[in-house]
Amino acid sequence: QPMEANHKHRNDPFRTTELVNRARSGCGTFGRGEKQLQADFSRTLLHLSIMTNEREVLREEKLTEDGGVVKRVYREGAGEERPGRGDKVYVHYVGTLQSDGSKFDSSRDRGDHFTFDLGVGRVIKGWDIGVASMRKGELCDLVCTADYAYGASGAGPKIPGGATLNFEVELFSWDDMSVQKVRRPGQPGEVKKKVLRDGGDEAVRPGESAAVRVAVAGWHGETEFQRETVELVLDESEGVLLDALLDVVRGMTENEKCKVWVSAAAAYGAAGDAARGVPADADLVFEVSLESVTNPPNPRDLPAPERLAAAQRAKTVGSAAFGKGQLNVARKQYVKACDALHFEESDEGADEAVLRDADALRLVLFNNLAAVCIKERKYADAVAQANMALEVDPKSVKALFRRGQAERLRLNFKAASKDLLAAAKLEPNNAAVRAEYGKCREAIEAAKSKEKATYGGMFTKMALFTDEEIAARKKAAAHDPMATSDSDDDGLDDDAEPDTTVIPGIRTVEESGAAGVGAEAEAAEPVVAR
């Protein structure tokens, strides 16, 4: 038989119906030629054969663990791109009941593409899952059980309750509406992401201290420079992945996969990364899959001894990060440890020994936070943290030292001198305290010299010191136990017992008649929460 006549109708199921009807009518028509009847049946069988070949199942996959959505692919799509959540997709579909094959709906009958916003609940759950797995041009069947279709209630007279449905779906195109800008306040560059695979409504989101496994592939231009799977703890892993990617992971859900665009400024910048083969000023593209998430228990849900142990671990991680210069990680760990140490009298296991150990650890944490704030040049925050340390122990040499150091850097020399002198009286041989006091005194002397050079002798009464006082102080400098030092090492032991020896013969700034010099460098309101 001439195949050309049928081949052009290979995608037209109504042509098949027409041929079948003609064959049936020929069987019942007296006098119809035998050859014509055979021809009608031959065309029918040939057309059905072509249609069967066209719909050969290339592959089948379960899209859900419970098998509630199964996809049978008849024609593969082009490329690797798939629509994401929020994209407007354009499809044709034919819906039938699995039980008897009866058709209940078809966009092809209406002649127009069916369009909807993917992944936002505008269609049945099986469609949001199935269409998100398709590529442009793909033709498949989506088999959806009632749990992923219309449930026990069904839909209208054509879809009974509990029905499993078959949908022949062809994906033509989509409008990419799902590229989102990742918010990174205060960070350079730009980061955008597009969800390629949704983790699902019930998927786990990582907390700040979650342990995660992440698969990452990265490209600059057409060159792949990274493909690896890493396991890390989010708030302990600075430097394991780009900060931009860590920010993306924090906003993902378990099993989610996304495409990420990272501008050069948010990636390796002008330096590039020679080890990975990333050139300078390269914009990067990544595919990131969050394969697993394990969130730790909330410390406040644990008995007091376990919370104390968790705080100790966080402090250890923070101190290691501080030693590496990872101030952001250190600060987060110290704050997490402090947060775990808020005990109530009714807390399980909160006995006197635990509370005493908690106070000792809290003192160390506040002092360490003050040190982090000083490194970050957040001097008002450092003063606030030192104040909280002094609430725990008013005779903490380290807290007095930190507060004095922060006050000096804020140009509040009067307050700085007062704190440093108090620390020196507690530990008269502490080299770090003596050095810091020396820096404070030098700053006062420099300010006075500048003032004198600016105003001459016009405002002697306003000067920090008289000439006679300066001469007397210089004469006594050789015997001053608070001699200056250039060392930046504070030399302070958090666990040391304070030396309460009083230093005789040291005149405070107030006793010398000096006032504070200069305005405070920043507002005194603390930012770091207690």
Summarize the entry for a quick read.
The protein has 530 residues and is an alpha+beta fold. The chain is built from 14 helices and 13 strands.
Description:
With 530 residues, this protein is an alpha+beta fold. It has helices spanning 4-7, 13-27, 34-54, 107-110, 125-131, 243-250, 304-323, 327-340, 352-375, 379-392, 397-409, 413-426, 431-455, 467-476, and strands spanning 59-62, 69-75, 88-97, 103-106, 114-117, 139-144, 165-175, 180-181, 191-197, 211-220, 223-233, 257-262, 284-294. The strands form two sheets. Strands 1, 2, 3, 4, 5, 6 and 7 form a seven-stranded antiparallel beta sheet that branches. Helix 12 (413-426) packs antiparallel against helix 13 (431-455). The relative contact order is 0.06. The model is unreliable at 1-15, 27-31, 49-53, 460-464, 480-489 and 493-530 (pLDDT under 50).
Quote the distance from N terminus to C terminus: 88 Å
Beta-strand percentage range:
15-25%
Radius of gyration: 37 Å
User: Mean of the pLDDT scores?
Assistant: 79
The tally of helices reads: 14
Biggest sheet descriptor: 7 strands, antiparallel
